[in-house]
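Re: that chain you flagged

S.,

Sorry for the slow reply, it's been a week of failed gels. I finally had a moment to sit down with the sequence you sent. For the record, here it is as I used it:
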Amino acid sequence: MRLKDNVAIVTGSGQGIGREIALAYAREGAKLVVNSRSEKAYDVVREVQVMGAEAIAIRADVSSRQEVEGMAEETLARFGRIDILVNNASIYPVTSLLEMEDAEWDSVLGINLKGVFNCIKVVLPSMVEHRYGKIINIVSVLGTILGIANQAHYLASKAGVLGLTKAAAVELGPHGINVNAIAVGAVETPGMQFAKDLLAKGKSWFPLRRAGLPADIAECAVFLASDEGSYITGHSLVVDGGWSIV
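Prediction finished late last night. Pasting the structure tokens below so you have them in one place:
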């Protein structure tokens, strides 16, 4: 029960990595806000409630400041405070620079980068008031360490989130708020079906001989949100099975 009675918002937690983080937090005693743009959030809430933990589902598009403000208000009305924010929501369409339109670029940066900014802004009043907070941004080894074709917008957004993580850690540390990132590699999630070849290569290419699982990321998110990670801030924890060193 390392997160007992902590109130956590996990964005994009209707499936994949976000869902696994939400379930891991519930097992550790947190009170959950499961955020998604889809109905899947309600399915995750039911899973959390079966565990005996408290959870509510809030549908909100993180690229909209108005919707994110509504999510924070509803969280505070229900639980009274916000202790943990996991910025996991992101999209990753595959398009070459030659074919990429402004609208697609804006959509990816709007969710992946501005969405993180929006969510941080709305949770800060509660965290500053209580002089406590854990903010965890899910980034990628793509953009922060490695390059890849046909996802320039995604890589740019994740590099931007890492820069935001470092800046926020410096500014918010005096308020008792830790800000860290988890840089994920190839993880087997529903959204990664476009990268089947990469996931298959993991079995022979990555040093650990497998692609990642959502649970691999969730355990790290528990660590950074717990008291065990209280002296870590501004750090990007690489969880990629060694992909970025080969």
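What I noticed first: DSSP finds eight helices and seven strands in the chain.

Talk soon,
D.
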